[in-house]
Amino acid sequence: MGFCDPVQGRWHKILLNQHAGARHITDPFSGVDFDSDQVQAVINTLLNIPGITWTAGQQRVIESLREFPERLLLIQGFPGTGTTLNLMGIADVCRLLGIHVLYATPTHFEGDATCDTADKFMQLSEGHLAKSYGVPSKHLEGHVIRLAMNEERTLIASYPPEEQIAKSKGDLYDLIDDDFMDPEGEEVDMLAEIRRFTSMLQEKSFRQFSDEDKRKTLLTFK
After folding, report:
1. CA-CA distance, 178 to 173, in Å (whole number)?
2. Is 124 exposed, middle or buried (0-12, 13-18, 19+ CB in 10 A)?
3. Which range marks the domain in which residue 194 is found?
4. Cα distance between residue 153 and residue 146, in whole Å
5. Which class for 84: exposed (0-12), middle (13-18), buried (19 or more C-beta within 10 A)?
6. Band of pLDDT at residue 21, cut at 50, 70 and 90
7. CA dihedral 102, 106, 109, 113 (to 10 degrees)
8. 181 with 105, same domain?
9. Same domain, 72 and 130
10. pLDDT at 144 over 70
11. 8 in a domain, yes or no?
12. 88: closest CA among 141, 125, 128, 41?
């Protein structure tokens, strides 16, 4: 019935595969504000996450994200062949590029199973991303690193001035964590600061930081 609808009719030729000859190839990222190298770097990062072994077929699916035949990528497979993992990989590429993903399943059971796979996948993905910048691979740190490195956002906040640091009597981080202190000093883009400090962590250990940089690093991740 859907094929009789003019809006849905455009998929008739594609889904029934009745067209002889080469298909038109579309790069779905070409109309979005990403350069080719950026997209390819994210795909390469995904394919090299420790703990995930992609089969040759799964790898071809991920690599084909730049080449949709007739604007449609159709993934088929029997249960247990890794189609859900493939879909998680595709969603992760989009997520790392700042693209929102909507995932739907026909039943609650399949939705629960997919969420379990997604949770395991995210832990491996975010842990790998955090480790690549020298930061402990905890879930929150992984999220913060991904936000700072892969999304063009700003987060304006303030460092505490010397007067507030002195009044904290050594409890600076706890006071801020418990919302008993609102830093009133220098305003900065905290995501830019994260990028700066993670780059520094790739060059030297935290112990080699100056006292000011150590304090700012800890405050930034708070």
Report:
1. 9
2. middle
3. 156-221
4. 11
5. buried
6. low
7. -40
8. no
9. yes
10. no
11. no
12. 125
Question: For residue 174, what are the CA distances in angstroms to 28, 161, 177?
Answer: 46, 16, 5
The pLDDT score that the predictor gives to residue 1 is 46
Please enumerate in sequence order all residues whose Cβ is within 8 A of that of 175, keeping only pairs 6 or more positions apart, or say none.
Answer: 168, 181
Integer Cα distance of 204 and 115 in angstroms: 38
Same domain, yes or no, for 126 and 54?
A: yes
25 φ/ψ angles, rounded to the nearest 5 degrees: -100, 130
For residue 17 the two structure tokens come to: 């595969």
pLDDT per residue as tens digits for the range 86-131: 888 888 888 777 788 888 888 888 888 888 888 777 777 665 555 5
Q: What is the pLDDT of residues 48-64, one digit of tens each?
A: 887 888 889 889 888 88
Tokens 């995930």 belong to residue = 52
Check if the beta carbon of residue 150 is closer than 8 Å to that of residue 133.
Answer: no
Which of the pair, 196 or 133, is modelled with greater confidence?
196
More confident call, 198 vs 151: 198
Q: Across the chain, how many H-helices and E-strands are there?
A: 10, 4
Q: Return the closest-CA partner of residue 74 out of 85, 59, 86.
A: 86
Return the pLDDT at 6. 60
Predicted confidence (pLDDT) per residue in 167-183, tens digit: 777 677 677 766 777 78
What is the count of structural domains for the chain? 2
- Quick one: pLDDT at residue 133? 47
**Residue 28 domain-assigned?**
yes
Q: Residue 16 domain-assigned?
A: no
Does any domain span residue 140? no
